[in-house]
Design goal:
Helix content is about 50%, strand content about 5%. The protein is mainly alpha-helical and about 500 residues long. Helix 14 crosses helix 16 (about 365-375). It is globular. Mean pLDDT is about 95; it is low at about 495-503. The chain binds flavin-adenine dinucleotide. Its cofactor is FAD; (6R)-5,10-methylene-5,6,7,8-tetrahydrofolate.
Length: about 500
Amino acid sequence: MHLLWLKRDLRIKDHAALYHAAKQGEPVLPVYIVEPDYWQQPDTSLRHWAFISDALTELQHEFQKLGQPLLVFYGAASRVFRDLLQQFPISAVYSHEETGNLWSYQRDLAVAKFWQERAIPWHQYQQFAVFRPLANRDHWFKQADAWLTAPLYPTPVSLPFICHTNWQAPLPWPERKIDLVPCSQAQRATALSSTLNTFLQDRVLGYRGGISYAAKAPHSCSRLSPYLSYGMLSMRALQQESWQHRKAATNTKQQLGLDAFYSRLRWHCHFIQKLEDEPEIEARNMHRGFDGLRENDFSAEFFSAWAKGETGYPLIDAAMRALRTTGWLHFRGRAMLVAFASYHLWLHWRPVALHLAQCFVDYEPGIHYPQIQMQAGTTGINPNRMYNPVKQSLLKDPDGRFIRHWLPELQHIPTSWLHQPWLLTKSQQQQYGCLLGVDYPAPIITAERAIKLARERLKLWLAANRACWTEQKKRIVKRHASRSRPIEQRKRVSERQLTLFND
Ligand SMILES: Cc1cc2nc3c(=O)[nH]c(=O)nc-3n(C[C@H](O)[C@H](O)[C@H](O)COP(=O)(O)OP(=O)(O)OC[C@H]3O[C@@H](n4cnc5c(N)ncnc54)[C@H](O)[C@@H]3O)c2cc1C
């Protein structure tokens, strides 16, 4: 009998591990494990669980139709496997490779040892264009193309029955000592097909012009991230389906939208490959030359204001409060929150990353940590993007729709003052029903002064640490930078990530 271990791959379509486990007609036992230790990690939250538990319910319907229901166990993976071995004649284990957090990396090492000691093979398959191991990035684009355009894995038509299921919805919630307040408007796992269909058929028309505008983004973006993060949707299947739509598209807006979407999808695997190649970047600066830069300056007061959406900068606060309520934020909003925390507030990226990881329903470690480091300026290969919070506000929420929605206390302030409410006189504040420091915070820092200070700090730091700089940078480019041709064939090496901001 084959054991199918489901992790962040909660689907049956284009499922390499299921396909291989079932292809000889051998009985397959599908198992999901809720690991209590995992749910104590500081980058997890019950928002993730709310989505996963619905996804498991959906998946159960699929497995029941195939003939063998899904089993769910609570406990440490090795302990669950030990118990299963006593009940079932398991001859091999099948799963997808997981590029998770440091905890799941260590867990997988322990699990590998467990099966090895029992001489039971554990077959792991790629679920993204992420290669294990990858010597360097010279040929990654080509390899990724080949992988993403390869045929999808067929789904078995049926599975031999082994045993009845051991659970029914709703599954018990894992325990967590401290957690965020629940997310009242989160995306649901049950909405996958409507999200995908409305996007490809209609919402993609607004993708190109809408994804960076705070008020338009929730509708214009695909909103497929949580389905990709927990593997309800296969990345390869999505790429191929969107490509088919692109080929059939006759409307220019639709073509441009699908082109932009298709290129964004590419960044998914590109970023996950970074964490796969260097799992330590979850906790350490990608460029070690930045070690020590911000560690000793952490302000708990600034962090708390930022994390609650109470900095006094309307666009920043609206973005954080939207995220806390919905569990989602568009790319530009995420980048801006990290940049503001890193440069204006001079906070180290690690606590910032953990807070956001808990907030995002779509938390995907492989995208999250490399993106956080990029926005915090610790990769050594990306430009420092210090967003001006007022300029961004005027550009990306010009009529203040997003700000007014998420900061109702600013509702009656005219648009001309909305982006900088601190410029209102006392009597204007009274007139518009919003007293600064009472109804809405006064700015916790002065943006211009904070950025000047950040620039000076960086300049001094770079001057003092120049010696180790170039060697480190070369190492990072070789290991992590995207390129369509090998380094030797290029005149100038630059991170193509820049294209992410051309919208
Ligand atoms: C600091 C920071 C942290 C982030 N953390 C996460 C995370 O934990 N999980 C996550 O899925 N995304 C993360 N992103 C990337 C991006 O913001 C989200 O993928 C996107 O906003 C999700 O919404 P969507 O599915 O509607 O995106 P769309 O614009 O519709 O894009 C479709 C898909 O392409 C991929 N994608 C899009 N943009 C990027 C990008 N810049 N980098 C990598 N992949 C991308 C995602 O899989 C996304 O679902 C982060 C970005 C930043 C700046």
